[in-house]
Write a structure and sequence with these properties.
Elements: E1 5-11, H1 20-32, E2 37-42, H2 61-69, E3 72-78, H3 86-93, H4 96-99, E4 104-109, H5 117-129, E5 139-141, H6 144-147, H7 156-186
Parallel strand pairs: 1-2, 1-3, 3-4, 4-5
């Protein structure tokens, strides 16, 4: 039997009234239904990062544990001013060693038509610096306010498209996760 892979889905912002949380929860829920996958969900609003950096006194022990357990990451984040939300950057800065040689997928979210393409581009040098292999398949949630209903569920007319894209993204992410997990265990 194949070892279970742990995928941590990181929501990108703690902003009040955020619509991107629906997209992040959707990706986490999708991951939780995949065979041999354990999905962990990280909402920055639920963690405490008092200062910048990755020192012991600037970490949240619960987040450290979550990132240590993860074999791969899926970041679902809105685009703020063509870049990364501060709360996501703070999360990423806190755990350098726990991200190293663990693959990452990106999902961009926006209120407009671009779907967060620029935030996915802005994350590339961050992931590279942290030693996180980035998968090619990105997922975009343009006009997020029109994609989800009042209960935060993806509207039925969008399910087929997003499920097809998520299958493709997770096929690639899990392949990388298996390879890098094996390499970390034998190193």
């Amino acid at each position: 039997m194949e070892d279970k892979l742990v995928v941590a889905v990181l929501a990108g912002t703690s902003r009040e009234g955020r619509k991107s949380i629906n997209a992040a929860r959707y990706v986490a829920d999708f991951a939780s239904k995949l065979p041999n996958v354990e999905a962990l969900f990280a909402d920055p609003a639920e963690f405490n990062f008092p200062y910048d950096g990755d020192n012991e006194d600037t970490r949240d022990a619960r987040y450290t544990e979550l990132t240590a357990r993860a074999d791969a990451f899926y970041i679902v984040t809105p685009e703020y001013n063509h870049s990364i939300p501060g709360s996501l950057k703070r999360m990423l800065d806190s755990e350098f060693e726990n991200y190293y040689h663990k693959p990452v997928a990106f999902g961009g979210v926006s209120n407009g038509n671009w779907g967060g393409t620029r935030v996915c581009e802005a994350l590339l040098p961050v992931a590279h610096t942290m030693g996180m292999p980035v998968i090619k398949t990105e997922l975009y949630f343009p006009r997020v306010q029109d994609l989800f209903d009042e209960q935060g569920q993806l509207k039925p007319e969008h399910v087929e498209r997003y499920e097809a894209n998520l299958h493709k993204a997770f096929d690639e992410l899990l392949l990388f996760a298996r390879l890098f997990k094996s390499a970390r265990q034998t190193a």
